[in-house]
Amino acid sequence: MQNILLSSAKRHQKDHKRYNLKKVFALVQENKHPDRIIEAIKHELRKYVKRERNKKLPEGSDFWQLDCKFGKSSDDTVTLSFADIIKELDKAREEDWKECYIEIISKATQKTSQDEEI
User: Fold this and answer.
1) Whose CA is closest to 58, among 110, 20, 108, 104?
2) CB 63 within 8 A of CB 111
């Protein structure tokens, strides 16, 4: 009986792993206007970033840094800021891409003071 209780308690502990967004988004879907698809992807990305930034920071960290990659496939990516990914989605729509790969990795970082650089 005690083993059952222990395994049940372990199941309910919070997992503090960081999950990263690595996903291929289809930009063309049947019966959907491409502009609505792009808006839905942007909404999903903004929602993910908001959720990541609201997570509790580890001790000694000041903010969440987002490392973002964007491209046609996972092999052909460019490192960008989050704001640039939103702009690149619009460009991908104009160039009639069928799909795109987006990767967002959040890292807890500390602020660096300007005084240390002088």
Assistant:
1) 108
2) yes
* Cβ contacts of 75 within 8 Å, gap of 6 or more: none
Whole-prediction pTM: 0.74
- Say how many C-beta atoms besides its own lie within 10 A of residue 104's C-beta: 19
- 23 has a pLDDT exceeding 80: yes
The contacts of residue 65 (CB under 8 Å, 6+ apart) are: 106, 107, 108, 109
How many residues in total does the chain contain?
A: 118
Say how far apart CA 95 and CA 89 lie, in whole Å. Answer: 10
Read off the tokens for 93.
């729509």
